[in-house]
From TrEMBL:
One GO CC term on file: cytosolic small ribosomal subunit
Matches recorded under HAMAP family: Ribosomal_uS17_B
Gene Ontology biological process: translation
Protein name stated in the entry: Small ribosomal subunit protein uS17
Length: 81
């Protein structure tokens, strides 16, 4: 099964080797038939602490790293490879 890749914006980088990423998705409401925005925050592993608040990043699923971290930030090197 392929790993999910999500794109979002970094909202917090205060923790060591961890960033909080806000991922927003848009979908059509089944009853109201309008486009609705929904957002969710994910905690992702940032090995080198290179991402700062406001950066657009892509995160990928991984094995659990801690109680709340199940995602890893994709670097530009990993995307091109």
């Amino acid at each position: 099964m392929p790993k999910r890749i999500l794109q979002g914006r970094v909202t917090s980088d205060k923790n060591e080797q961890t960033v909080t990423v806000l991922v927003e998705r848009r979908f059509k409401h089944p009853v109201l038939h309008k486009i609705v925005r929904s957002s969710k925050k994910y905690r992702a592993h940032d090995e080198s602490n290179q991402f700062k608040v406001g950066d657009e990043v892509r995160i990928v699923e991984c094995a659990p790293i801690s109680k709340t971290k199940r995602w890893t930030v994709l670097t530009d090197d990993a995307v091109s490879a």
